[in-house]
Amino acid sequence: MLYIVTPVFNRINFTKQYLYALNNQTTRNFKIVIVDDGSTDGTSEMIKKNFPEVILLKEKGDLWWAEATNIGVKYSISNGANYVMTLNDDTLPKPDFIEKMLYWSSLNPDVLLGAAALSHSSSEIIFGGNNISWKNRTIKPVLETLTIEERFGLHEVNFFPGRGLLIPVEVFHQIGYYDSNNFPQTVADLDFTHRAARAGFKIFCNYDAKIIIFENESANTYFKKNKSFKNFMMHLFSKKGGGNLFFFIKYAFKNCPRRHLFLFICRGLFGRIIGYWRA
Fold this sequence. Notes:
Helices cover 39% and strands 23% of the residues. A hairpin with a 5-residue loop joins strand 6 (112-119) and strand 7 (125-127). It is of the alpha/beta class. Strands 1, 2, 3, 4, 5, 6, 7, 10, 11 and 12 form a ten-stranded mixed beta sheet that branches.
């Protein structure tokens, strides 16, 4: 059985349309676990009223993405999950999304499968997985290497975000859960897939399984688009900041090969500090 785990916090409208999108899937062979970390906007009440089949776990509001996800994952495993999918509430899964994920998972039962992402504004595919090169200190989008005719099926990557990631339960048994101590919000998902890859699990982006994303809604996008000294500091030091320096350095030490570590950190720091103003 597939369990879909989604942490939520005070985004009732996103959560509602996300759950409606899951209700409209071409298969119902899955369960939904929502971890509501202290929402005050009526999110839990809305779920109870409109989506009684959803498993609702209410928390106190002192969690972030990683630990809230861990709570949902542990619940899922203890209730018989064979696979867990992490999926955000600011996405809209296409109607055949789960069907396509389960199809490819049945053919490749021991791999992690990520979702291809479409832009909400343009409906064009904008994300299809990345490959990181520690040596060259670069991240190369797989999408740029494929023709339109090649954008189907599975394409291997070496890490993946948690937005629409299907994970065999065996992965958690072997490597543990998300590192919420070092990465409470951002980076935890990337770190998890690096650890999975080192443990021998392959990772693919499933181009047949698509989700729509609101690419301009993330906190980090807001910080970058609304440039100011305050938002620069939020970008570099807040838990939601995609350029958080402390998280980046911990991420590099945990995952980058030692022979490439110094230059990787130097380039990463430069990109986060100087790149903010150039973007």
